[in-house]
Amino acid sequence: MSAQPLVLVADDEPRITKLVSLALSAEGFRVVTASGGEEALQKAEEVRPDIVLLDIVMPGMDGIEVMRQLRERRPIPVILLTAKGSTSDKAKGLDLGADDYVAKPFDLDELAARVRAVLRRALGVAPGGGIVSFDDIEIDLERRMVTRGGDLVQLSRTEWLLLQHLATNAGKVVLHTELLTKVWGPEYRDDLQYLRVWVSRVRRKLGCKPGEPGRIKTFQGIGYLLDVDGSRTDGAGGNTGQTPGDAVPYGRRRDKRPGEGDPGRLL
Questions:
Q1: Neighbour-count burial of 111, counting CB atoms closer than 10 A to its CB (0-12 exposed, 13-18 middle, 19+ buried)
Q2: Smallest Cα–Cα separation from 111: which of 167, 172, 29?
Q3: Which of 23, 59, 80, 211 shows its CA 20 to 30 Å from the CA of 171?
Q4: Is pLDDT above 90 for 33?
């Protein structure tokens, strides 16, 4: 079996699929192409790609519907390709579950870098054991699941990897550069606005109201902290009223209970 990642590129413009195929092949990827949504689903079933690049606007079945059906079959990273380049369109694509978004016309070197970065994230960060819990949230680091009030929280790969890294280091401030490098790759280490957008998305998934930090605290100019004990305030560098021994360091962790149900996996 080849170790080279397999990329499926779906676009109804032959010149785009040819150009992307040549560029990614030159970067060491194996590439298969599809000219529409139905063909993309068929080829995804046949060749089991490692990542899919989808044009949003395709006749018959658009990229959003293709992505939805792909995710129903198995977890797979998706990068959306579109001629639309506004901030609102980008946010919509990410909200619909894409792992990344590239607007046309795109730089081929950047596209290849994005593919590599998403594939790195898809491999995941080595999870710790047990469960990190707070309020009605449980983060199962081994099974890679999050529940809220007993219900499964649907997270994209990027949202999960960001939360996973914070939960693995619960109680610690994780530097901006560390999060960006671990989750997105070294080429993103200075993209603080990108990180802020994704942290905001994770906060909402955990039930925070817009503008509220919830348990993911901001340390201005430094990083973020998952405050499982509710003892920290945004921007605070120290304890705010908690005495030593009030909580287990790095969060309340416990081993999974024998016989616990598995409501479904995130990834």
A1: buried
A2: 29
A3: 211
A4: yes
